[in-house]
Amino acid sequence: MIQHKTSKLLKVFFIFVFLLTAGTNRSQSAEKSAFTIEDSLRIKSVRIQSITKDGRFIAATVSQSNNRLGINHKRFRDPTYIAPRPVEAVVMDTENNKTHHLFNMPKELHSMSWSPDGKKMAFFLRREDRFYLQIYERTTQKIKEVLPQTDKEVASNSFLIWANDNQRVILALREKGWRGKSRKMFQNATKGPVIVYDSRKPFLKWDAIRDQSSLQVIALVEIGTGKVEEVLPENRYFNVRIAEDDSFLTYVQMVPVKTEYGENYYREGGREYELFKRNLEKDAEPHVLIEKTNKRLDLSWNEHNTLFAWDDDGDIFAQSVFEEKARNLTKDKFKPEKRETKAEKDKDPKEKKVRFSVIRWSPDSKKLLARTQKGFWLIDYKSGELEMIYEFPEEQQRDSQRGGPRPITVESWSPDGRFLYMTYSATDRWERGFTRYDLQEKEMEDLVKDSNLYRNLRMSKNGEKFFYQFSDGDLPSDLYMTDKDFQQKVRMTTLNSWIANKKLTHSELVKYLDVDGNKLYGILYYPVDYEPGKKYPLVCEIYERFFDNGFRSSMNILANQGFFGLRPSVNLEIGYPGEAWVKGVTCAINKLIERGLVIPDQIGVHGTSYGGYATSLLITQTDRFAAAVNISGKVNIISFLGDSPRIGHRNYGAAEAGQDRIGATLWEQPLKYINHSAVMFADRITTPHLLITGQGDWNVPAGNTREMYYALRRLGKECVWVNYWNDGHGLSASESEDIYKDKWNRVIDWYQTYFSNTEEAQKSSKPL
Predict the structure, then answer these.
(1) What is the dihedral of CA 168, 171, 175, 177, to 10 degrees?
(2) What is the arithmetic mean of pLDDT over 660-676?
């Protein structure tokens, strides 16, 4: 009896505290101003470019959301066009936590890189339509321009690598005549007067233009004199590296063969790759390390650039630059794994091969870290001996077999070889952080683990300092530094202090089952000034799967209109992707309605690109929504196949084996292409539909989305198509701030108009 009374008293007390806290929060929120569309362009983020070996100095860039404004989208794939990307360039002293700005205003630059001794930092700075080599002296904080003694220009996409003598850098130049030829190729494909497409030629026209962009001449430049030594003639080079003693270069050379279609066109086919080593002595001939292959070479190198490894068909191969042939380190090491379940046996009665993938070399270059579905392994380079060092929990192994997320990802290996530092993220809740695995004791240690967001872990070369991005999940992230035990945390940036005076949403992870019983997750964003017990309109932003939160301007804009925002996940199935959104999104909505959070007839939906496509397809299958917005999304997958010439044959690959998940060609299963084209079922749409496109969109041409406008108008349905003549793909790809604001205002007005027309809104507006 006493217990019962106490329980009642406690409930009353907690309700009182909740109401008091809610009232205080509302009072504090009332003092803040709304987060506006203009505010979304002010958000800043930092990116580490280079760290000195001792971790003392960081070279970084700070970008702002409005950096994407002003791009000429109609010059996409013009090899001579450089899209504007102004950034703040900074050098941070981690000892005294001071930041030095290289310039007093944002500049267009890239490839900031510290010299091996940490005394200089090189980067490229843009003037007009070219980039120029700059050297920053750390002690004097002065910048000197280096003028290479050559009539060739620096390639706009050049890499920048220091030689270990601290006196030279390796960069890429453009051959004389490259600019004129490249510009002519682009103009011929866009202005004519006669444009010829010929299937007898090996390449699609736009594939040839793209490959023109990757032509480079590799050179060594002395930073003191500007003297240039051309090391490699014009060709297409990737993964260029220099030996620790500056005696040789290694590099991958790519040769386009033809435009290739097929399931693995991203990774193999249509191009040949070859790995070379070239001594830097005069007139030395390149030496082949890996002969031509049509598979892309994704190589893992040791710290000294003398050993490399890769995985192919589940086996790991390794080789020294001084050896003629690679060795298979995992061949026949294990008997194939037996299929674990009857379903797996029925699907494939054959035994299943143990498949390895390379992670990285040990600091002493004696071992390779690898992973399988079962766990992490160490492989001895000389003997080939394998040792499982960490077995994943059974649930993680099952998730891995299904292609699920990986809770732990190796980021760094301590210089003494003892510890593996990893990023951790639970797959069923917001529990994230960093862990450390002790290879000596075979123990996993949590360094930090909570509901906050921890990302982009970087370690100084000496292993004494770590840097990472941190956010509580609702605010923009900032850069932090800590020691190797993660005990002393120092905040390095405060980029968006002004946002403390703005009304912001807060997020929540929601769990639900789709129609097929699959467990899914979504991220719910609350309206600002939220009052418990009150129902609000809901806007869904859809794409594929969502799990982690993080600051999102779009959700804050919607929350400041008094809407809930929801990013629901769906379970996409190859061959039947169109069903996923109606099966998953509607179930997520039902969950929120059951909780009494949202007004059932004031629900909207929108998406961008693939999400825009999903939006139009979704409203052909349900009338649950009061309003819908397709932003830069296709509506006809059949015409889309050849609708984006500037990205070559990608749309065929995306439909057949990529994101669209049709799983077959148009000619093999034409009905599936029809069934996944929303415009074919426009007569079923009852939801007012807003379409937003950019005439300069190279990804989803405006003409594809336009088909829906003409269809809905013909059918007498409510639809508005807004085409921005100088814009590209998505809301943020705008020519100016005014156009960006216009886009968002149209989206908000669309929802507000149709939410106010609902039965619930009309009832609430009637006088008592």
Answers:
(1) -120
(2) 96
Average pLDDT for the chain: 91
Cis peptide before 79 (omega within 30 of 0): no
Residue 288 has a CB neighbour count (10 Å cut-off) of 12
Neighbouring C-beta atoms of residue 636, cutoff 10 Å: 24
Q: State the Cα–Cα distance between residues 308 and 757, nearest whole angstrom.
A: 64
> In this structure, what are the phi and psi dihedrals at residue 236, rounded to the nearest 5 degrees?
-110, 110
Residue with tokens 């007898």: 200
**Which tokens in the block code for residue 749?**
């007005």
Which residue(s) pair with 374 in the sheet?
none
Which residues is 433 bridged to in the sheet? 424, 449
Reported for 298-302, long-range contacts at CB under 8 A and 24+ positions apart, including other chains, are 299/239, 299/252, 299/275, 300/358, 300/359, 300/360, 300/361, 300/368, 301/241, 301/361, 302/361, 302/365
CA distance 199 to 190: 19
Residue 741 has phi, psi (to 5 degrees) of -65, -40
For 175-196, how does the pLDDT look when each residue is reduced to its tens digit (9 = 90+)?
A: 999 999 999 999 999 998 999 9
Please say whether the beta carbons of 411 and 457 come within 8 A: yes
Predicted confidence at residue 14, as pLDDT, reads 37
CB atoms within 10 A of CB 424: 19
Q: Tell which phi-psi region holds residue 474, choosing left (phi > 0), alpha (psi between -120 and 50) or beta.
A: alpha
* Residue 423 vs residues 74, 183, 287, 390: alpha-carbon distances, Å: 40, 45, 39, 15
Q: How confident is the model at residue 342 (pLDDT cuts 50, 70, 90)?
A: very low
Q: CA 298, 300, 303, 306 torsion: positive or negative?
A: negative
